[in-house]
Amino acid sequence: MPGENLSRDEARERAALLSVDGYEVSLDVRSAIGDAQGDGPRTFRSVTTIRFRCSEPGASSFADLVAPSVTALSLNGRDLDPSEVFDGSRIALEDLAADNELVVDAQCAYSRTGEGLHRFVDPEDGEVYLYTQYEPADSRRVFAGFEQPDLKAPFRFEVRAPEEWTVWSNGAGEHADGVWRFAETKPISTYITCVVAGPYHYVTDSYERVFEDGTRLEIPLGAMCRKGLAPHFDADDVFLVTKQGLDFFHDHFDYPYPFGKYDQAFVPEYNLGAMENPGLVTFREEFVFRGKVTRASYEGRANVILHEMAHMWFGDLVTMEWWDDLWLKESFADFMGAFSLVGATRFTDGWITFANRRKAWAYRADQLPSTHPITADIRDLQDAKLNFDGITYAKGASVLKQLVAYVGQDAFLEGARRYFKRHAYGNTRLADLLSVLEETSGRDMAAWARSWLQTAGVNSLTPQVLLGAEGRVDELAVVQEAAESHPELRPHRVAVGLYRRTGEGSLERYARAEVDVDGPRTVVAELAGAEAPELVLVNDDDLTYCKTRFDETSLATLRDHLGALTDPLARALCWSALWNMTRDALLPARDFVGLVLRFAGRESDIGVLQMLHAWADSALTHYVAPDWRRAGGRLLGEGALRELRDAVPGSEQQLAWARFFAAVACDEAELRLLRGLLEGTEKVDGLDVDQELRWAFLGPLAAHGDADEGVLAAELARDDTASGKRHQVRCLAARPSAAVKAQAWAQVVESDALSNALVEATIAGFEQASQRELIAPYAEKYFAVIERVWAERSIQIGMDVVRGLFPSLRDSQDTLDATDAWLSAHEDAAPALRRLVLEARDDLARALRGQACDAASAAAGR
């Protein structure tokens, strides 16, 4: 990996020297089918012609290419010796002319890690499927180029493929004489070019729009997946959301979709949720649902569709100059995904999901030692890869939501419109966006940007209530605090809500005030004189990005009446705040588990319910005192089974509780019920145990030794698909056997034979909370191998191994000390590797603090 890195300084120097007029890329992927080629990697031919200019004739530079070999090279008609100018990742370019043409004929390798041109063989029918994935810098694994976002250019692709295949790229394609040729693109960055090829199932539709001036826009729509998934592919719903999104963005952006067609490909073994390639968006195929899922899954898919669509403007049309300003595309797309979801689709409660799920991701990331400002300091490509995180996405989106409250929605959207028109097909920095927002809002954006975009950390807001003699509010203030490591106190536009119980017992808001919180203490004058509240909710309506705390009265009210809160957003915000308190060791973890057991059954929002299940499981695994784990697991199992039986038959709540019950089942009676549900000897009225639910039940059975290799082989025979294979691999690695763990470890750490998807599945099976002692010996092995793994494997696999195999379940001071010892002994290790280990260390230290809090509370009898 280090030899493939590119620094920001190198990119700036190259951008100052070069400008690119166009690419012609010819790929021959007929080698994708048939027998493997000898002992080396399976390869394909890639011929790239780049026309570019140099501002300083006679200067030197380089092009990027990661390939096993280069067959021929020429620069301005002069043949170059590949052995002299190509080092495996860069092509040295000497004595450049004012106008240049570089031709590179290379043998590039198909990928099994989801980076570059990924090759997948479907175990169900033997069919081969290809797709590309590049962000941030893997197009160089497919063709030679200048791999940085600010050297944009038009691209023209042609692809030779097996005759029975179809091929797609960013532009519209035509097939003749065995070659697929695609229309030239608009100027775009290398990392958003795309090729998808294979016998995909393909469905078409179209979108039409007539604008006020009478012009008509027609966009051909397409959606595809593997043939094996075709029976499950609900393309009509994908197209519905697509059309709703296109209408919404045309209404608000005043800039017609600029990239011709709009294909969406759901592809196998995908590392990301999706990727915004203009004209050809790629998604992970898990968004094609093989079984019954809840409304939250459809909402999540719709949000991703809209997120990627927003990128057509934020990111593709206008692109950040370097990865420092990654937020200029990802934060905006994340915000616009939720904004359009609520404004254009049936998922009108999208802001609840945002408050409960997306912001939880941001809060965790913003409290890690690797936290960074939204406008980050990205020194190189490895930094960039790791900064696709909760800060860049969810915190950035939260800050934009705050910005809309600060400048007003009309000014915000008018700023976006001017931004698109002013910088179309160009590259921008932070100042370019701030300037248009200053124009449209009349506000000085510099101070706002310094506080929100250029400093790290999350503030906590806590209400202080002073009551007068008559039981009314004498003074209500909001106290703002910051961590010592990141002391910035920011300006917040917040709503403060006062709640009390009604005669019917529901907990409802009776007073609300919006206020600008600035500094350590802000008085909310508008609420003076109000009747005494039972609950004060700071950041009601979720206008700002902060951790919400409670005064003692409010916390006591939530302990007894959380389920009585009638407003679903207020309820979601309270749950989120309580979870943050648990992670911060301010609320004993067993208390949080108790709240979930008491009130989660009343939760109407299915997305919030599923998040509560995940948090309760995490609390039991990481934050409760170790001596309470068994009792807590038993309580969760009993509670989940009770709610499963009480749920409305056939409802999505019933499905969610069934999955949670499987996740926490641990005693013999619970495992026996899972076996019975699989075998048909037990039944829960209305619960359809489809194939995906069968695998969910088999996971805990395998982990507890109740599903052996034969049982799992029989299940794979029943579901002999790519999805089934991933599930089987996970379950195999979950079995409670030292030999099984040794084999799983060797497959992931000592071999690169597994694809990215199977690496992920094996790691998921290896790490079982019920097997702490069994996997304890691997803590020492982990620290012995991670530097080698990072050096030898692709960055994606390196990240999976370093994150996934960190011994977090060996949650003791000894593990913390071992982590510190490794960090002290490896100060010169790759910064990105150290960041991953530091993040894992912080999670472990936080877990130990949570366990101490939980134990102390139990000892005190609270």
Description:
- The protein is built from 28 helices and 28 strands.
- It is of the alpha+beta class and 862 residues long.
- A hairpin with a 2-residue loop joins β4 and β5.
- The model has no long low-confidence stretch (mean pLDDT 95).
* Count of helix runs: 28
What proportion strand? 15-25%
Average the pLDDT over all residues and give the rounded result: 95
Specify the structural class.
alpha+beta
Can you give me a brief rundown of this structure?
With 862 residues, the protein is an alpha+beta fold. The chain has 28 helices and 28 strands.
Which terms would index this structure?
862 residues; 43% helix; five-stranded mixed sheet; eight-stranded mixed sheet; single chain; alpha+beta; 28 helices
Helix and strand topology:
Layout: H1 8-17, E1 18-28, E2 43-54, E3 61-64, E4 69-75, E5 78-80, H2 82-85, E6 90-93, E7 99-109, E8 116-121, E9 128-133, E10 155-160, E11 166-169, E12 173-176, E13 179-182, E14 195-198, E15 201-210, E16 216-225, H3 235-253, E17 262-267, E18 274-275, E19 280-284, H4 295-311, E20 319-320, H5 327-344, H6 350-365, H7 381-386, H8 391-407, H9 409-423, E21 427-428, H10 430-441, H11 445-452, E22 460-467, E23 473-481, E24 492-501, E25 507-517, E26 521-523, E27 535-540, E28 547-548, H12 552-561, H13 568-583, H14 589-599, H15 606-623, H16 629-646, H17 652-664, H18 668-679, H19 691-703, H20 709-718, H21 722-734, H22 738-750, H23 756-766, H24 772-775, H25 778-792, H26 795-804, H27 813-825, H28 831-859
Parallel strand pairs: 1-10, 16-17, 17-19, 20-21, 22-28
Antiparallel strand pairs: 1-2, 2-7, 3-6, 4-5, 4-7, 8-9, 9-14, 10-13, 11-14, 12-13, 15-16, 18-19, 22-23, 23-26, 24-25, 24-27
Helix pairs in contact: 3-4, 3-5, 4-5, 5-8, 6-8, 6-13, 8-9, 9-10, 13-15, 14-15, 15-17, 16-17, 17-19, 18-19, 19-21, 20-21, 21-23, 22-23, 23-26, 25-26, 27-28
